[in-house]
Amino acid sequence: GCTSGHGVCGMARLSARSWVAVATFMSTAIATASTVQAVPALKELVFGAEGQEFFVIPGSEYAPLVAGIAGVGLLVEAIFSRASESNLHAAKKEEADSKVTHASLTASVPAIGLSWAIGATFAFGLGMSGMLNPAIILGFLTPTSAEGWNPNLALVMGGAVAVTGIAFPLIVNNKAPLLGDRWHLPTAKDITPGLVLGSAMFGVGWGLGGFCPGPAISAATTGTSHAVATAVALAAGMGIFRMVKPMLPANFH
Predict the structure, then answer these.
(1) What HEC string does the chain produce?
(2) N or C: which end of the chain has fewer CB within 10 A?
(3) Where in or outside the cell is it found (predicted)?
């Protein structure tokens, strides 16, 4: 859960879990970022000698374009990959099965294309609003900073919640998605230790680095080492959690 998951989608759905998560990671992120800014030794340890300018990503405005190009490549690769699988199955199965496989392939192409378009739009919006620049995020998370408070994140997130809050009830009023057989919506409602602890951990990391998953992945397309390292670390963290999750109590998460 992050600013896009719990923050935009969850809050717009009026999910109690999401409101708790957002309150938790926002407070811990602000506390973390403000503490780093207030303690010179800690600030130098986190940002190095270059200071917060280390986080300014040169050329980040081109990230949506790069993401779009990468998206086209992934789309083409996915289509050809599925087509190859379809041909392989068609050679081994009866004609009826081949028709089903072909129908599935045909239906998947629009879904993949739409997913790419949505992702590219999201990345473009992040770039246009400055959300690919961690310095802007940290400017929001440090309201008492000498440089002054930066309200950009609040405006972007507030606008996204408003749009989603209006659109979501209208969309899910349909029996199924346009290109899917059913809706895949969260069903958990309990406020669990894992929700609170995970949100707090996310807040600490966000307050230190200024990146949440969406902007980190988009900014990584610029090739900036900090953004790439953050995206890789995010993937590693999620992988580690998948390994640890079976060891946790059932009611933890």
Answers:
(1) CCCCHHHHHHHHCCCHHHHHHHHHHHHHHHHHHHHHHHCHHHHHHHHCCCHHHHHCCCCHHHHHHHHHHHHHHHHHHHHHHHHHHHHHHHHHCCHHHHHHHHHHHHHHHHHHHHHHHHHHHHHHHHHHHCCCCHHHHHHHHCCCCCCCCCCHHHHHHHHHHHHHHHHHHHHHCCCCCCCCCCCCCCCCCCCCHHHHHHHHHHHHHHHHHCCCHHHHHHHHCCCCHHHHHHHHHHHHHHHHHHHHHHHCCCCCC
(2) C
(3) Cell inner membrane
Question: What pLDDT digit, counting tens, does each position of 53-70 carry?
Answer: 545 554 444 555 555 555
The reported pTM is 0.74
- Distance, CA of 112 to CA of 79 (rounded, Å): 8
d(CA 233, CA 3): 18
Q: How many whole angstroms separate alpha carbon 37 and alpha carbon 26?
A: 16
Place of tokens 């473009």: 124
Q: Which tens digit of pLDDT belongs to each residue from 136-170?
A: 888 899 988 777 788 888 888 888 899 988 988 88
